Amino acid sequence: MNVTLESIATIRSPFCDLKDMPVQPRGAKDTCATIEFKEEFVEGLKDLDGFSHLYLIYYFHKIDEHELSVIPFNDKTNTPRGVFSTRTPMHPNSIGLSVVELISVDKNVVTIKGIDILDGTPLLDIKPYIENFDKIEGEVKSGWMNSSSKEVGSMRSDERFIK
To answer: Which among 49, 58, 45 has a CA at the least distance from the CA of 11?
Structure first.
């Protein structure tokens, strides 16, 4: 089965180069950006301003190759990991997911905060974060990833996923 996706908007961020970018939203918690929606999707933004946070689903448009085994940025042991146990951009479909803070909605422009996404990235979808749906209760496991919040926040990209 073939799947065709259409970009609904373009993410405009201060990050214009893949090298030395934050690798997770925690590393860019004070970074603001805008999302410029195509006119035909503006009606879909109605009522979005009542939410504090959003899920962004986007396409890693600068990734040309995919790997099933990668060494992720936050792996202190430099151990190759299965790509599906990571949040690297090297997944077969090159789809990214971030949770960001919503600042404002003005016509076709949504302003957000806490973004670690390259300028010009195509947005595939946007969904509101809803605490009663999305908050995880009980024990949460993070698998092999044991970097502290501070370490995750200070991590920057290097050449490992740039071809």
So the answer is: 58
**Amino acid in the structure at residue 145:** M
150 is written with which tokens?
């501070």
CATH code where residue 54 lies: 2.40.30.70
Closest of 105, 95, 117 to residue 28, by C-alpha: 117
> Cβ atoms within 10 A of the Cβ of 99, count?
13
Decide if 3 is inside a domain. no
Full domain range(s) for residue 53 = 9-161
1 lies in some domain? no
pLDDT, tens digit, for every residue of 97-118? 999 999 999 999 999 999 989 9
List, in sequence order, every beta strand (DSSP E) within 51-152.
53-59, 69-70, 81-82, 95-106, 109-113, 121-128
Q: For position 157, what pLDDT does the model report?
A: 65
pTM of the model: 0.86
